[in-house]
Design brief:
The chain is mainly alpha-helical. It is built from 14 helices and 5 strands. It binds tryptophanyl-5'AMP. Belongs to the class-I aminoacyl-tRNA synthetase family.
Length: 343
């Protein structure tokens, strides 16, 4: 194999982390530490593509780092850092801005959703966002990226950028004596029962930081009481739980809650339905609330403690930043030669 198995993933420090971020991404970071070299990044440069109050950004950056650690990411085994510390992210993103086409960026559904009718008036950074994301991943020549379903299109674009770079600069790459497959074609890791956790109020809407209703999401900083109340109040249809996964079709709220139970208990939806199929919400919701509290409340306690301990968190980020920069500079050194920059 030309590339050793290396995982990279990132989370934006742009508001409260929620259950979707945890089940779709952070929880899945932990076991990958056993099989891969793992790099987990707090993407503060992505966050400022929309306005962030500086003190809020600092607090949110520490909060994401605290969530990684509280969830079981080991900062000795993994590299944990914030993006802005490693200037090569911005440098490679610029090269990729000159590889990617504006048409590719305009097609991104996340850009269209975020820009809405206001697309002339959003930051240029928001349009170029996927180019910086490709730089995050390819700077480390990551072979696999664990994310939720909403990042799929961005990862396809990362593959397109890698392929176009390898192709446009093919002659130069060979001339510099480097592997013709200079950048890997990265695999998305989007799997399991929780790739798209939905709002607790509306099973057709994604659970998101920007939903105005606090009841729509479980925040990773919620205490046991809040977690339990939100689950018990979650919107559901009146029917009992189906006996098999097929029966979840057309029942988005039921599908979502069964998916959350499955992800929290490391089971499949089918296994959850073997246990609860045919039962009513009066049985299932309390069981889900107990499970969620048992799993999430200790983590939120640990997060709260770590967020206060800024010396420890900042030390972890600084150490991670140094280790990340060593890898990033190697790649960037080659990229500069390939592109024709003199140093
Ligand atoms: P962000 O910060 O919006 O979300 C972080 C991670 O959480 C996942 N996620 C969800 N998963 C399941 N259900 C949901 N409702 C849900 N909401 C969010 C996201 O898919 C993501 O995995 N562009 C990225 C950050 C990024 C990145 C990267 C990721 C920057 N560079 C390089 C991977 C590799 C983002 O905005 O994620």
């Amino acid at each position: 194999m030309a590339f050793s198995p290396r995982v990279f993933s990132g989370i934006q420090p742009s508001g409260d982390l929620h259950l979707g971020n945890y089940l779709g991404a952070i929880r899945r970071f932990v076991p990958l530490q056993d099989t891969h070299e793992t790099i987990y990044c707090v993407v503060d440069m992505h966050a400022i593509t929309v306005w962030q109050e500086p003190n809020d950004l600092r607090r949110a950056t520490r909060e994401v780092a605290a969530a990684f650690i509280a969830a079981g990411v080991d900062p000795k085994r993994s590299i944990v850092f914030n993006q802005s510390q490693v200037m090569q992210h911005a440098e490679l993103a610029w090269v990729f801005n000159c590889i990617a086409r504006i048409g590719w960026m305009n097609r991104m559904t996340q850009f269209k959703d975020k820009a809405g009718k206001n697309s002339e008036n959003v930051s240029l950074g928001l349009l170029a966002y996927p180019s910086l994301m490709a730089a995050d991943i390819l700077l480390y020549k990551a072979t696999a990226v664990p994310v939720g379903d909403d990042q799929k299109q961005h990862l396809e674009l990362t593959r397109d950028i890698a392929a176009k770079f390898n192709n446009d600069y093919a002659a130069s790459i060979v001339e510099q004596g480097l592997d013709p497959d200079f950048f890997p074609i990265t695999e998305p890791l989007i799997a399991g029962p929780a790739t798209r956790i939905m709002s607790l109020r509306d099973g057709t809407k994604k659970m998101s930081k920007s939903d105005p209703s606090d009841q729509s999401r479980i925040s990773l900083l919620d205490d046991a009481d809040a977690i339990s109340k939100k689950i018990k109040k979650a919107t559901t249809d009146p029917a009992e739980l189906p006996l098999d996964v097929e029966g979840l079709k057309g029942r988005p709220e039921a599908d979502n809650l069964v998916g959350i139970y499955a992800a929290l208990s490391d089971k499949t939806k089918a296994e959850v339905l073997t246990e609860f199929g045919g039962q009513g919400w009066g049985k299932f919701k309390p069981a889900l609330a107990d499970l969620a509290v048992a799993q999430l409340a200790p983590m939120s306690g640990e997060m709260r403690r770590l967020i206060e301990d800024t010396t420890t968190i900042d030390g972890i980020l600084r150490d991670g930043g140094e280790r990340a920069a060593a890898i990033a500079e190697k790649t960037m050194h080659d990229v500069r030669r390939i592109v024709g920059f003199i140093r």
